[in-house]
């Protein structure tokens, strides 16, 4: 028997969450189970607003990032990126025009930047709700389904996409909002930390939009009474250890130790060995769901960012919202409420 974890939820919503939870649990172990081949970093899908993005120049790669990449064998590669709407790939971005740089979720093991995908619902919905943001660019970063795509391959790709926008298209960083959901939110934080920590030709963007960010890839939030174990039936994210296979694939040779204390990987780790700050980060808006398993770690991230950002940090939590609820039209009224908050934030 399925019970409603939130009194405000309908029976159909409760059933959908539980079915989706089983699907996420299965794909976290098996990888994508789609009967057709999903778009990936290996090829550009024609007639979709796509462009090839060249590898990040070696001059933009720090010694620290080179060392991290050497462990897994990750190197910068040529990858696709997609403009949303597709027609916007044909016109130049004017100065002052806000561009959303979108990094999709999917646990680093599934998902795609292609405009026809479920993940593209998020940038498309933001564009529809926010008149001040005119177009989005989504990078097809590598998924950690093979050894050499483990951390920091996705970070290298996110940097390549940002370099493309700033140094190839000459879009001012002050006109770029970097957005990411779930694992994409984790990647946004890693990208920004790199930009803040390294003197390169890549200034930080104007702002960050983090949607249900996955900010502890370690195990520090899996052992507390206030952890995600209390929300197992209210979210479609699986039980705490249900994505361990995906975590291992992403971590690769870096292992669980890095997941506990590396600020690029787990900025909301509760491990006392983690040393972290958010000085230099741009204005940030965090959107979370009160019913999602990641809520405790997202709230800790909020508190840590608040110390350094002060009033530049904005936070919205929808009480009945599951993980990444903007993805799904049936997650109402939380979805519309969040998009309204985002529209207000982008207009200021």
Strand content: 5-15%
> By CATH's scheme, which homologous superfamily applies?
Alpha/Beta hydrolase fold, catalytic domain
What Rg is obtained from the alpha carbons, in whole angstroms?
19 Å
**How many strand segments?**
8
**Quaternary arrangement of the chains shown?**
single chain
Question: In terms of per-residue confidence, which ranges show pLDDT below 50 for 5 or more consecutive residues?
Answer: 224-232
Mean pLDDT: 88
Number of helices, counting only DSSP H or I runs of 4 residues or more: 9
Largest sheet, order of strands side by side? Answer: 1-2-4-3-5-6-7-8
Globally, the shape reads: globular
Distance between the termini: 47 Å
- Give the C-level CATH assignment: Alpha Beta
The portion of residues assigned to helices is: 25-40%
Query: Which fold name corresponds to the CATH topology?
Result: Rossmann fold
One letter per element, helices H and strands E, the order comes to HEHEEHEHEHEHHEHEH
How many discrete domains?
Answer: 1
Report the structural category.
alpha/beta
Per CATH, which architecture? 3-Layer(aba) Sandwich
Largest sheet: 8 strands, mixed
InterPro entries: AB_hydrolase_3, AB_hydrolase_fold, GDXG_lipolytic_enzyme
Protein name: Alpha/Beta hydrolase protein
Organism: Armillaria borealis
Domain Alpha/beta hydrolase fold-3: 102-326
